[in-house]
Design goal:
Length: 336
């Protein structure tokens, strides 16, 4: 990471929850990879955040972190140019989280929409102190590096709002501007549905993972839901309601081919079977090289662990002086 002070500092994190899929690729990750050209980026495998929901069976968290790192690197997250590390390897996250918890009103956390929503959805086992503090740990993640830009999806906006409120309260309470207010950096990514047209989810088995084999890609594309009104081959179709058509665009079909598919579909000269075969080839062209890189990275787990260790050392070097500054502001230590 360069020390060029004119580049903004970006922080983002992802929970290690298993193999990543094309929703991650065309959503968050594509954005991360591009940002590396214009910002000093810090990307974290947020394993402590994973524990807030996986605490009853955390047995996969470490391995899922390595899998995720391999996926990140396979799509172009570059640990040389960016700082890539695991949250729990840098103790400052936990320390700052605890410090921030002292000044954060309970009501601020209780009213974060994801809090009640997730408990309703996922049940009582989330009624923990740690889960209530999830967005505050996220705040600590970001401000521990004085990051100002946070690439996230729409769903994370309430967490960024809380982060800014906590920053304002801290700076105001201790009379100095220790932390800058972070802002979300939304990418305009299209809504990406699963192959069956429902929300993409591991439990539905409707997502193309970045490690999918050619056979899996063939099976998933073949089974894709198309325009439900196109019953017979001779019926004209409606590409604008067809997920196969969306995927052609998502996977980078050139404009001329997009037009040709549109025309073929609406005039019934192109059948869905052929349309899907073309999509299968297109998806394979994108995924196969990612899969090869990913598998090569996974073949050397100790190199992945070294990458995380190196990232942790670099992250810690940035975090330590910020933590010291926050401790001093809070009256926990005298200035140097
Ligand atoms: N809560 C984020 C999510 O579920 C993950 C996350 C944790 C994060 N810490 C972060 C994202 C800091 C951005 C910045 O997607
Ligand atoms: Fe969808 Fe292609 Fe069939 Fe048209 S031809 S309905 S775009 S799969």
């Amino acid at each position: 990471m360069s020390n060029n002070t004119t580049r903004p500092r970006v922080f983002s994190g992802m929970r290690p929850t298993g193999a990543l899929h094309i929703g991650h690729l065309f959503g968050a990750l594509g954005n991360w990879v591009r940002l590396q050209d214009e910002a000093d980026c810090i990307f974290s495998v947020v394993d402590l955040h994973a524990i807030t929901t996986a605490y009853e069976d955390p047995s996969r968290v470490v391995d899922d972190g390595l899998l995720m790192l391999a996926d990140w690197m396979a799509v172009g997250v570059d640990p040389e140019r960016s700082v890539v590390f695991r949250q729990s390897d840098v103790p400052g996250h936990s320390q700052l989280h605890l410090m921030l918890s002292m000044i954060t009103p309970l009501s601020w956390l209780e009213r974060v929409p994801t809090y009640k929503g997730q408990i309703e959805e996922l049940g009582e086992h989330l009624s923990t102190y740690g889960f209530l503090g999830y967005p505050l740990l996220q705040t600590a993640d970001i401000i521990l590096y004085k990051a100002t830009q946070v690439p996230v999806g729409q769903d994370q906006l309430p967490h960024l709002e809380l982060a800014r409120e906590v920053v304002r309260r801290f700076n105001h309470m201790y009379g100095r501007r220790v932390f800058p207010e972070p802002a979300a950096r939304l990418a305009d990514t299209p809504l990406i549905l699963g192959t069956d047209g429902r929300k993409m989810s591991k439990s539905y088995g409707n997502s193309l993972t970045l490690g999918a084999s050619d056979d899996e890609i063939a099976t998933l594309t073949k089974g894709m839901v198309t325009d439900p009104q196109r019953v017979r081959r001779s019926d004209p179709g409606r590409p604008e309601v067809c997920n196969v058509f969306s995927y052609h665009k998502l996977f980078g079909a050139p404009p001329a081919e997009v037009d040709e598919i549109h025309e073929g579909c609406t005039t019934a000269t192109l059948g869905c079977v052929d349309c899907k075969k073309r999509l299968c080839a297109r998806v394979t062209d994108t995924i196969a090289p990612i899969r090869e890189r990913r598998n090569a990275l996974l073949a050397d787990a100790s190199a992945l662990r070294d990458t995380l260790a190196d990232g942790a050392a670099r992250a810690n070097a940035i975090a330590q002086p910020v933590l010291a500054e926050a401790e001093e502001a809070m009256g926990l230590r005298h200035g140097a």
